Every structure is written in structure tokens, then in C-alpha cells.
Amino acid sequence: MKLLNRLYPQPSELLPSYLHRLANGNGYRNIQTLMKLLGEELVNTRVPSKRLFFGGFDTEKLASLVNQPHQQIESRQLIKHGATRFSYMEQHFLAKAFDFTYLKVCPHCYFEASTFNLLNSLKVKSCCTKHRCSLLSINPDNGKKLSWSTHHLKTKLPEWVKHIPAKAITEQEFLLNQHIECLWGQQPSSIYPVVNNLNLSDFIDVCSFLSHFHLRAFPAHKSSDNPFLITHDYLCDWPNKFYELLDYFQKHPMRTKGLTGIRNCYRDLYDDLCSTENSQSDGYRLLKQAFDQFIQSHFSNGNFNANITLIDSDILSSRAFVNQTQAMAVLDVPVSKFKVLLRESFLKAKTVLKNGDAMYARSDITTLKTRLERCLSLECTAKLLGLSQYRLKLLINGGIIKPLLKPTKTNRDWLIENEELEIFVKRLVSCAQLKVTKSNKHQIKQFQFFGMDFLELVKQMLDGQIAYTYNPLKRSPMAFKQFIPVRSKHEQPDPEWLSPAEACTYLEVNKNVIYELLKKNFIKGKKKSVKRTARPVLHIHKASAIEFKNAYQLRHQIHEPERHTIVHGKNVDGFMINLYQRINQTII
């Protein structure tokens, strides 16, 4: 069976409009009668418009009835993209912004083309700017909305127009519809500068979002003829009007439970802005940019929960207050270390919420983090200075190096700031008095034990009481071994006493002989305290050494052997070396 009147689809005409023209052209009262002829099962008296728009209709049978290629009929349906969008005119439109069940008609446009434009299915569309008239959407015979099931729409429409009084179109309504029509015809429009770069689908995203959440905040506006016209006010005063809406939800949170936070104040709005399906829309990017700016400037004291993952990192890092969990994440410390910082008063809560959660200033956290990053443990500090931990503790307890944190009854950690160590080394460098020479390069060994502890040594070095040199080391710029104490003039050896080494040089014998001479009472000695070792050191009385040298001579010191005779030696009395004396001298 073929239809008597087989019409061709017009350019850009969708399947429901084409079926409507076919029904009118073949004398049917509406689309339903034609669909029954095609064998479609209808569960009620309504036309299943979404099936016609999105591909739930047998287009092959219709193609055979109208003697048209099947692909041409099938191409008159919309293609779904995800759960919320469809593609048309190479753009991805938001499906909820359209009304696929009911009709809005410009009578003049319909008389000219006899087709229904998808543009008029937009919920925000309310008038035709070409003919300066409101769109007809109500059947005056019964007061019901026009739909694809309305009987004999083409024949009754001229009679309805005659009896329907003209309705005034407001300026905001006209401008909003004019901007939409310009975008539909891909023509430039400067009505709303803030959205000049958006195409129709992106602009519809903005309008749908703003109208939806405005009605959510102020439901009384739903009673108006076209509540979507509020979008005009938002776009003319962007972003101030949008900020007023966000401020309203901050004071009247969308979520009844909870005390503060973005999830509580902007739960549904936040989810809509950050949903995956809306992420490719330039309109949603515009909205999210304004939302982020509002959060950064008006919501910095909010509690950003861990599940707020889609807020820009710059905003998260610039919030004025953070809770304990977020503070621990910034400081990168466990809860035990965080409690130590609180107990030692390194950090204090700025405010406490009603649920008991403490909020900390972000600036305080950042400052403390920077300070902790420059701190070292006791072990690392000792290694850096090239000292033992015992000597380092002497410097700390003596007040020369001040730690940021030291062990107490409730804490066992050490923290020493690197800046404090730099100050200590700079003080030593500035107090260095002598240049390094060969004579004093190794004098540090003579000052290991000054008859005072290490702390007293360092204090005297810093006070100028002990002179020292500075020998910089490139590989160890903080090492204490760069500073070498040198004996001053008042620390010269006592002229009445000789050290064993000096006695060896003076008497021209080795140390074993010196000790043998002391044992045999040839010379006299005594143990004395010195400033180069902790224990007393044996010293030789210089007068006894001089007396011995005048009384005895060694074999290599004798120039006239015939005038000397051996008085002590291995063959004489078992003495260690041979001692000679002049013949005319009295033997001791």
C-alpha cells in the first residue's frame, strides 16, 4: 500500500514534523492515525514523540509507503550522546532543555512552511522575533496544551489566531529570543557580550542551568508565563547576579544536614557543574569559572572536604582555613606528629565549628610547613657539623644553638632549624683571627683538652679569648673542623721545665734513655698538667738536665778521647748507654 500523497522531507525537517505533514496531506486528523496505518502499537492516546525523535520508529516501512530511500527517512531522527545530550546541526544539545511532547507554534511561520521547527521546542523560547508575536501553545477550544496528538491542527490554527488576543512582548523576552534565533541561523549577535563566543548548544546550557537553580532558590517565579526569561537578567549583570544566587545558597544550603562546606551549600549545583557529560561544554566552563572565582573570594573560610576533588587546585591551595585532616596533608605529617605540634604551641586553631572540628589558618600552616622543611634531626645536624651528638647537645644546652623542638616528657623528637646552624657558622667565620699557616695547620690536636669542656672552648672562641684560624672546606661548608684553635703567646712552654721530647733534643738521646736517666736519678722530673691533654704529663726539670749535660758526655760528643774515661755503661754497671767524664773531674 502506498500513501496517496507522498511528500518529500524538507531540509532540516525532523521525523515528527514530516509525519505531521504526511497526516495533513493524506486527510488524517493527526499523527496517531498514520502510525496505526504503519502498524505501530500505541499504548495510549498520546503520540510517543520521543520514539519519533530518537529512533524508536519503523522507518523502513514508512520509507516504502512514501517511496523514499530509507536512509533519507532515518536521517530525520536525533542521535543520543550519553544520558543527557543529543546531536543536531553538529552540536551537542542538552535534552532536558527541550520539550518533545508539547508544541509551541508561530502561526505565521507555520503558514509559510507548514513545518515545526525544533527551535520552538526549546523551553526558553517564547516568541518569534521575525513576526513579533508570542508562540501559540494552548488549544483555545479546550484549554489544553498543543501536542503532536492535537486533531486537525493545520485547519484549526487559522481560526484560533483570529480569536486569540495579541500579547505584548517584553524587551527582555524579545532580546533573549532574538539572540537564540541568531545563533540558530549561525549569525553573530552582540546582545550578551559575556556569551559572544558560545554557540547555540553552549548558550542553552547556560540558560538551562541559570533558570533551573534560580527557580530552585525562588520557586515563586514558576508561576510566571516564562520563568526562563530570568536568564536575561543574569547575562546582563554577569557575574554579579550569579554571585547573588550563590550567596543565597551559601546562606540557605541545599543540604539540610551538615554545618558548612561546598557539598552542603551547593550539592546539586556543584554536581551539575562538575559532571563528566557537561565537561565538554563551553557554557559550563564559563559557569564553572565564575563559580570558582566566587569560591575563592567569598567562601575561603569554608571547610573543603576531601571529596571536593573537582575544584581547581589554585582555589584549594588558597583557602583561608583548613581542618585537621587537610592540615596534616599539607604538612605531610602523621596524626601523632600533628598532636606534638599542637602541644608545643607551633600551631593553634583559629576557630572551632559547632561539631567540634578545629579550623586552622592556611597561612599558619604554610609558614610552619616552610619552617619544618628547613629543620634537621639531631643526628643529621651532628653529621652536618661534623660533631658527635654529645658535643652537639653541649652546644644546645649551653644556648649557642637554639633548637626549634627538643625532647620533653611528652616528646622525644629533636628539630633544629638550618638557619640556626648557618648563624652559628657565620659567627665562627666572623670571629676567626688568624690565617692558616704550616705552623698552626695541625694545632687542633693540642686543644682537644684545654682543661675545660667543649662548650667552654667554643664560648671562648666566640668571645675572642682563644684565637683560631678558618680553613674553608668546599665539600663540608658547615663542618666545625674548619676552625682551628692556635696557642697564644701567653701559652708558651714554662722555661723551668722541659717536655720529654724537648729533653730528648736537648740531651741528644731518645725517650727510653730519658726515662732510664729519671729512674737512675741522673735527672729530676715531675708530672704537670698541660693544655693539650686531660691527664698530667711528665716534665724534666731544666736545671737538672743542664747539670747532667755539664757532668757527662756521650761518645759522639767527645773530641779528645784520651782525656775522657767511661764511668757508666753496659760493661761498667749495666747502664743503657755509655757515659763519659773528664779524667780530672770527680766521679759521681
Task: Give a verbal description of the structure.
With about 600 residues, the protein is mainly alpha-helical. It has 25 helices and 17 strands. The strands form seven sheets. The protein has a three-stranded antiparallel β-sheet. Helix 9 packs parallel to helix 11, helix 9 packs across helix 14 and helix 11 crosses helix 14 (about 280-300). The model is unreliable at about 300-310 (pLDDT under 50).
What does the secondary structure layout of this molecule look like, with pairings?
Layout: H1 15-25, H2 31-37, H3 49-54, H4 59-66, H5 70-74, E1 79-81, E2 85-88, E3 91-94, H6 107-113, E4 127-128, E5 133-134, H7 153-163, H8 171-184, H9 200-217, H10 230-236, H11 240-251, H12 262-265, H13 267-273, H14 282-298, H15 313-318, E6 321-322, H16 324-331, H17 335-343, E7 351-352, E8 358-361, H18 362-373, E9 375-376, H19 378-385, H20 389-397, E10 416-417, H21 418-431, H22 454-462, E11 468-470, E12 483-485, E13 497-498, H23 500-507, H24 511-519, E14 525-528, E15 537-541, H25 542-551, E16 564-568, E17 579-582
Antiparallel strand pairs: 1-2, 2-3, 4-5, 6-8, 7-8, 9-10, 11-12, 13-15, 14-15, 16-17
Helix pairs in contact: 9-11, 9-14, 11-14
Strand % is 5-15%
Find the structural class using helix and strand composition.
Answer: mainly alpha
Helix segment tally: 25
Through-space gap between termini: 159 Å
* Major sheet strand order: 1-2-3
Average pLDDT: 81
Integer-rounded radius of gyration:
51 Å
